[in-house]
Recover the amino acids of this structure.
């Protein structure tokens, strides 16, 4: 029998057979942005997957100080894709970060945390695979400007689709602009981004990302969604970062810009990232059963864990101050910590599209696309597993439309935190479930809280807001 080709051999063979000139090495910083540096193929060989490449990590956000800044990255050969945006023939590889002295994976590397979460799942014996299917919404703008000075602040975003441009002299203005909150599924010409999304999907597929569908989203002003096929935890996070990279660069090639900010436009829908998840063991799904909405007891306990830990969990799944401009009570946002079949006003929904056991899953609707997926997905898994091991009862489902309920009916329904600061305080007080199996560490939790407070919460609290001038200038 012929020996199967290893992932390393496949990478080296592809480089040789396709005239590749450069290898781009991508890795994740602490808050959740891809970083990279590039080596010519003359500096890349079999040893690259063992010895890696050293670099200075002192300027990477959330990492160690300058006196401990030497770091090492080692590429994962299974993650190769051809970069369609670089002029010279270039392949990209996603890398893991290591301590050079010990050759141990760096504890603050988000991908390492996700890998430890997968290993912990297997060690519990509960399941051997967790699947995630994220739905990351985004806006496509034609123009964006912003600035913050001691004496002035402003932001400006614009889209040819924006309803606010219905009276603009566009020489000519053709009038096809989605009404506010009515951008869901219109056909062209109202949907002006069909060709762009198809180009995005084509680039994603060519890079090995499995896409299920694309469509316009609810908001006016260019809100879109492209749905990715579910994958195991680490691969799903890898592909979500590929997704962001490819979507942004496809837009830029078309002289447009994409943002994954949860709430870039006032008065219209924000961008969420509903995450579908399920546990499997030996190729069989563990969430179907005879309970509510066709769920197993295990699935209900998983939901119980998500609901119990959601206030602290949101420090990772909704990690920006802007995240809480979307999670506002009284609007179409999943702020009520309840679960339901079909009901999209609950923070956890059990989709009922299919009767197939393989399709049975839980949809967590709170997260948004500013999330670092390695940390967010790992934290979701740890919360769900805590629910299973401690048999946490999720309570009764809430099948009413929450937005039509009277205030007194919601008294006993807990809500999501009202700000990033509140979520971080919840994380400070509730994170033991994350420490199991050494998946997260006290250092990671403490560094995350400190970074977010120092770099985001406090600076935002100190800034005068333009709207305050309208409220208070004449006091």
């Amino acid at each position: 029998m012929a020996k199967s080709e290893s992932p390393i051999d496949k990478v080296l063979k592809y480089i040789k057979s396709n005239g590749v000139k450069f290898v781009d090495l991508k890795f994740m910083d602490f808050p959740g942005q891809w970083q990279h540096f590039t080596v010519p193929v003359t500096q890349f060989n079999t040893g690259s997957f063992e010895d890696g490449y050293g670099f200075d990590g002192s300027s990477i956000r959330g990492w160690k100080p300058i006196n401990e800044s030497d770091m090492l990255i080692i590429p994962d050969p299974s993650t190769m894709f051809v970069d369609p945006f670089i002029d010279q023939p270039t392949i990209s590889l996603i890398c893991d970060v290591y301590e050079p002295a010990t050759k141990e994976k760096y504890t603050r590397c988000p991908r390492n945390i996700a890998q430890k979460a997968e290993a912990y799942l297997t060690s519990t014996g509960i399941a051997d695979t967790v699947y995630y299917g994220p739905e990351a919404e985004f806006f496509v703008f034609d123009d964006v400007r912003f600035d913050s000075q001691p004496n002035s602040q402003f932001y400006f975003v614009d889209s040819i689709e924006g309803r606010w441009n219905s009276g603009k002299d566009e020489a000519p203005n053709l009038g096809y602009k989605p009404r506010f909150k009515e951008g869901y599924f219109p056909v062209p010409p109202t949907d002006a981004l069909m060709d762009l999304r198809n180009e995005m999907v084509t680039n994603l597929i060519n890079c090995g990302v499995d896409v299920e569908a694309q469509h316009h989203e609810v908001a006016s002003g260019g809100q879109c969604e492209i749905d990715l096929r579910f994958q195991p935890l680490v691969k799903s996070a890898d592909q979500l970062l590929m997704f962001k990279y490819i979507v942004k660069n496809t837009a830029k090639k078309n002289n447009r810009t994409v943002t994954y900010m949860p709430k870039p436009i006032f008065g219209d829908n924000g961008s969420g990232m509903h995450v579908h998840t399920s546990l499997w063991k030996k190729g069989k799904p563990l969430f179907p059963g005879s309970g509510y909405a066709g769920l197993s007891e295990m699935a209900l306990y998983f939901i119980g864990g998500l609901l119990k830990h959601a206030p602290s969990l949101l420090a990772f799944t909704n990690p920006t101050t802007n995240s809480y401009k979307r999670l506002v009570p009284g609007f179409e946002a999943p702020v009520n910590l309840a679960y339901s079949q079909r009901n999209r006003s609950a923070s956890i929904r059990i989709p009922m599209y299919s009767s197939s056991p393989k399709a049975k899953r839980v949809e967590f609707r709170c997260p948004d696309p500013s999330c670092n997926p390695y940390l967010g997905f790992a934290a979701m898994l740890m919360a769900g597993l805590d629910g299973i091991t401690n048999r946490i009862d999720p309570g009764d489902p809430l099948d009413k439309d929450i937005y039509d309920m009277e205030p007194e009916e919601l008294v006993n329904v807990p809500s999501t935190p009202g700000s990033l600061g509140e979520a971080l305080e919840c994380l400070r007080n509730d994170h033991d479930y994350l420490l199991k199996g050494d998946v997260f560490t006290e250092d990671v939790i403490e560094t995350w809280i400190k970074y977010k407070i120092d770099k985001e919460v406090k600076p935002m609290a100190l800034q005068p807001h333009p709207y305050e001038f309208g409220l208070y200038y004449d006091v």
